[in-house]
Amino acid sequence: MDWEYRNMREIIGIKEPGAVENGLHARVLGYLKDDGLAWVPPGHYMEGEVYSGKKVGPEKVASTWATCKILRSLSEEYKRTHREQDRQIARRNFEALRRLADWDTGRAYYTGGSGAWLDGKWVKSQMPTAALEPIVCYWEATRDPEALVFARAVAEGLLADS
User: Fold this and answer.
1) Rounded to whole angstroms, how far apart are CA atoms 156 and 141?
2) Could you give the CA distance from residue 66 to residue 40 in angstroms, rounded to a whole number?
3) What is the chain's alpha carbon radius of gyration, rounded to the nearest angstrom?
4) Displacement of CA 42 from its chain's centroid (Å)
5) What is the predicted pLDDT for the residue at 49?
6) For the residues of the chain, what is the DSSP string, one character each?
7) b or e along 37-54 (b: 16 or more beta carbons within 10 Å of the residue's beta carbon)?
8) Which residue has the higher pLDDT, 129 or 77?
9) Distances (CA, A) of 162 to 87, 95, 127, 159
10) Are the C-beta atoms of 29 and 54 separated by less than 8 Å?
11) Which of 1, 119, 145, 157 is the most buried (most CB within 10 A)?
12) Is the pTM of this model over 0.85?
């Protein structure tokens, strides 16, 4: 959650990021692939198996949770800097999250919650979904009208699910 470094810098009055913040931000962005999703080792989805020493599943899975966190981070950064590159990457994240959503009567939801995605299906579900807040943050930062429509659909989907 690299936006915390920016917040800490603002609190103590430091303008420019340091080496650790820059390194962490580069690492976080390094998870993103051309499809707009964050691809990570599956360990945090399958902790029990991994910690017991088993080799589980694929080397990497798309993580909706990590993709959402990166969308939030990029949105927060764009609010501060209006750097076009951050907006473009955030837009790609947003589009990827929208593609993964299932739809029912105008409501959007994630069958796998914040789980792992691979080869067109949910590999491991993880509830609840983490998508709504980052999508709203993206809309607040960019005023992308598609994001507001999608945020409303996700909110309706979450309410319908409960």
Assistant:
1) 22
2) 8
3) 16
4) 15
5) 58
6) -THHHHHHHHHHT--S--HHHHHHHHHHHHTB-TTS-EEE-GGGGSHHHHHTT---S-S-EEEHHHHHHHHHHHHHHHHHH--HHHHHHHHHHHHHHHHH-EEETTEEE-TTBT-EEETTEEEE-BSS---HHHHHHHHHHH--HHHHHHHHHHHHHHHHH-
7) bbbbbbeebbeeebeeee
8) 77
9) 32, 25, 12, 5
10) no
11) 157
12) yes
pLDDT reported for residue 116: 87
Tell me, what amino acid is at 32?
Answer: L
pLDDT band at residue 83 under the 50/70/90 scheme: very high
Taking CA atoms, 137 is separated from 37, 73, 106, in Å, by: 17, 9, 21
Average model confidence (pLDDT) across the chain = 88
Q: Could you identify the residue written with the tokens 């931000």?
A: 25
* Residues in the chain, overall count: 162
At residue 66, what is the residue type?
A
For 23-40, write each residue's pLDDT tens digit.
Answer: 999 999 999 999 999 998
Residue 114: which residues within 8 A CB-CB, separation 6 or more?
Answer: 63, 64, 65, 68, 126, 127, 128, 129, 130, 131
What does the alpha-carbon distance between residue 112 and residue 68 come to, in Å, rounded to a whole number?
14
The Cα 10–Cα 92 span in angstroms is 28
